[in-house]
Design brief:
The protein is an alpha+beta fold. Helices cover about 20% and strands about 45% of the residues.
């Protein structure tokens, strides 16, 4: 059996939707595509996207996610 651990894994493009809410005050949404290496965990993607949204809009630091969708961009 060959050892393929050093073989680069192909990336896949995924479409995401993330909606955050500051209850009773404000909502913010972000959509787009992100390229991910094979084996990337959904939680890691969510953490990355949350961090990016807060960088862009610091007022959302205390917001809670009310919707998160991540799916391959191709059908």
């Amino acid at each position: 059996m060959s050892d393929d651990s050093n073989t680069p894994q192909p990336e896949m493009t995924h479409f995401y939707i993330l909606v955050l809410e500051l209850p009773g005050r404000k909502t913010a949404a972000d959509t787009g595509e992100v390229s991910l290496p094979a084996g990337t965990r959904r939680q890691d993607v969510l953490d990355f996207l949350l961090g990016r949204m807060v960088e862009r809009n610091p007022a959302m630091r205390e917001a809670v996610p009310i919707h998160f969708s991540l799916a391959p961009a191709t059908v």
